[in-house]
Amino acid sequence: MDVIYLDYNCFQRGFDDLRQIRIQIEALACQEIFMRAERGELQLVWSFMHEDECILCPFPERKYEVFRLSALCKIRAGPKEEIYNYAKVFQRKARLSSKDAIHLACAYYIKAGFFLTCDDNLIKHAKQLNLNIKIMNPVDYIRQEGA
Hints:
There is one protein chain. The radius of gyration is 14 Å and the shape is globular. It contains eight helices and five strands. It has one domain: Rossmann fold (3-Layer(aba) Sandwich), CATH 3.40.50. It is 58% helix and 14% strand. Helix 2 (21-38) crosses helix 8 (138-145) and helix 5 (81-94) packs across helix 6. It has helices spanning 8-12, 21-38, 48-56, 60-70, 81-94, 98-109, 120-127, 138-145, and strands spanning 2-6, 42-47, 75-77, 114-116, 134-136. The two termini are 16 Å apart. Strand 4, helix 7 (120-127) and strand 5 (134-136) form a beta-alpha-beta unit. By secondary structure, the protein is α/β, with parallel strands linked by helices.
């Protein structure tokens, strides 16, 4: 069964500007991933970084929806020294922001098979690390894994 770490932007994608075709497609892909998690076809991860970003979200309706979706995440990644150490290395080697580095480090620490994000720049830089995680856009995951 696939273990998937979703970047925080995947949890929020349905609230972005749906007049843009790319965002519509990504929102649908994320919705499909959440439905598969609900059916038990894959496992999602929720980390302390997700929690922090959600708490800081200034929009109550987004915050409520993300916390609702967090219930689908059966794997939890709490703060660990190893995660911070990985994040520091990832930040230095791939020029990632601290938040992106922590998300990726959480995925790496729990040995997720997939790290999905809607951030093209993050995908590009994270792939430079040559980790044993498939790093891709949610749309590519759905294409790869079949509908």
